[in-house]
Amino acid sequence: MSDKNAEIMQKYHNDFLKEVEANVEEGDSVSMCMQCGVCSGSCPLGDAWEHPPQEIFMMIRAGKREVVLTSDSMWMCTSCYSCIVRCPSGLPVTHIMHGLANYANRLDIAPKMNPTRRFAKIFWDNIAKTGRVNELKLSLGLYFMDGFTGGIKNSLAMKEVGLGLLKSGRLDAMGLFKPGGIKDKTGLQKALKKAREIEDARKGLS
Amino acid sequence: MAKEYSFYPGCSSERKASASNYMTSVESMCETLGIKLNQIPDWNCCGASIGYAEGGELPRHVMNARNMALSEAANPGQDIIATCAACWLGTRETSERLRSSDSLMADTNEALKEAGLEVKANQEVRHMVEVLIEDFGYEELAKPVTKPLQGIKIAGYVGCQTNRPFGIDGESFENPKYLDKLVEAVGAEPIEAYDQKVTCCGGALAFSEPDKSQALIKNIIESAYDHGAEMIVTPCPVCQMNVEVYQHQINRKYNTRFNIPVMYYSQLMSVAYGGSVKQAGLNGNIVRSKKLEEVAAK
């Protein structure tokens, strides 16, 4: 368990709802959930959630901190926003799920091998460094995340997709070697570093 | 007189990127309609729908606020227009949050100061489709049509992020009609009974959870076939890519024989306005549309 996690647990004792309200994006609306289950029924990957959103909301109120934060459920969110537009209580369900995933990731207690968590990290590192997505580096980063052999296997499985994009002029074969990105990379990196510092300080995570 | 907008093209629209043909057709469409797009100088990625996980809340907003600040300085008084659904959603969300929270505005500007920038959030953030519908209107959009796409049956796949959470032109989230109306404006035949028009394609999870996403994509394509569609049209680069490029893999997995073109609304419009195969970016599709290429070559 990370030191940050232990520290935060100490700070909030067993009041997980209070912790979520203070530290999770849009977390202050969790207590408005009336347990109707429309969010769970609207989710395109609903079957893949061990604990659908409605259950997550109840578990937060019941103080099931570890079960919630170590769950891979929130990582099934495709950001389709169906739950948001249908929620009769007006909860920003999507944002809360994103917020919980981000918080668990920040505390480093989210499931390590979850593919979406790993992909999200590769993605953010890709854009924070140069300011723009390099699609070739992003895809190869994903295919090769379990090492060379697996990477070759994954790349071969994706061969048709890659070749199709290449042939239609929608993938840059030289993308690995081009610096690319924005001009003011330094400015962006400094601004993002500052933003992270401010956010961490507000959440007691610095 | 040309209508001017501050333009945020987004990463996928870059040359040799996954939606470069979207950009090509948008340029062609805008030329006909007299739309002048002033690109935001040195714009960066919006964080897309997966940036939240590693990036967090404030860094994500700072990414979008940087673009807004650059836009306010370079193109004052103009609306920010995005062609990508995720770019639009991310930027508009940041804009709304900044406008409604003084503390978020202060934090954001403290971070942006590191890059010598300041954001005011005083420009509207809109999707290209909103410009077409609200600033022109269907009748106006039909006027420059020289080659109506007569008799072509098209399933309008709206998807998620140009529909939820913000919506287009106050339309219903469950059954938005704008894409069908655009199809009608270019003389084609919209399939109004298409029942997967707002189904999610898996978004970024098409990469990380391919099996789960391809099950969704299969339904999206199957319903288009069931309703007699000859092609699918969409306003979103992620929808376009996911529904087009995995057809091979889905065929193998489900023993289907999918081979249906997935076009952008702007490609339909470019062709109907007299654009060539190249101008409409039709050569940028993996599953090429013979029907549209025939019309374009006429």
Supply the key terms.
heterodimer; A: 206 residues; mainly alpha; Fumarate Reductase Iron-sulfur Protein, Chain B, domain 2; 2 domains; B: 298 residues; alpha/beta; Rossmann fold; 4-stranded parallel sheet
What does this structure look like?
The complex is a heterodimer of chains A (206) and B (298). Chain A is built from 12 helices and no strands. Chain A is mostly helical and 206 residues long. Chain A folds into 2 domains: 109 residues, Alpha-helical ferredoxin (Fumarate Reductase Iron-sulfur Protein, Chain B, domain 2); 83 residues, no CATH class. Chain A starts with a helix and ends with a helix. Chain B is built from 14 helices and 8 strands. In chain B, helix 8 links the parallel strand 5 and strand 6. A 4-stranded parallel beta sheet of chain B has the order 2-1-3-4. A 4-stranded parallel beta sheet of chain B has the order 6-5-7-8, sandwiched between helices. The two termini of chain B are 30 Å apart. Chain B has 2 domains: 126 residues, Glutathione S-transferase Yfyf (Class Pi), Chain A, domain 2 (Up-down Bundle); 152 residues, Rossmann fold.
How many DSSP H or I helices of chain A? 12
Q: Structural class of the helices, strands and pairings of chain B? A: alpha/beta
CATH architecture of the largest domain in chain B: 3-Layer(aba) Sandwich
Return the string of H and E elements of chain A: HHHHHHHHHHHH
Number of domains of chain A: 2
- Summed over residues and divided by their number, the pLDDT of chain A gives a mean of 93
What is the subunit organization of this protein? heterodimer
In whole angstroms, how far apart are the ends of chain A? 17 Å
What is the CATH-assigned architecture of the largest domain in chain A?
Answer: Orthogonal Bundle
Radius of gyration of chain B: 19 Å
List the total number of helices of chain B. Answer: 14
Sequence of strands across the biggest β-sheet of chain B: 2-1-3-4
- For this structure, what is the CATH class of the largest domain in chain B? Alpha Beta
Any idea what the shape of chain B is?
A: globular
Would you list the SSEs of chain B in sequence order as H and E? EHEHHEHHEHHEHEHHEHHEHH
- CATH class placement of the largest domain in chain A: Mainly Alpha
CATH superfamily of the largest domain in chain A: Alpha-helical ferredoxin
Count of domain modules of chain B:
2
Helix content of chain B: 40-55%
Helix content of chain A: 55-70%
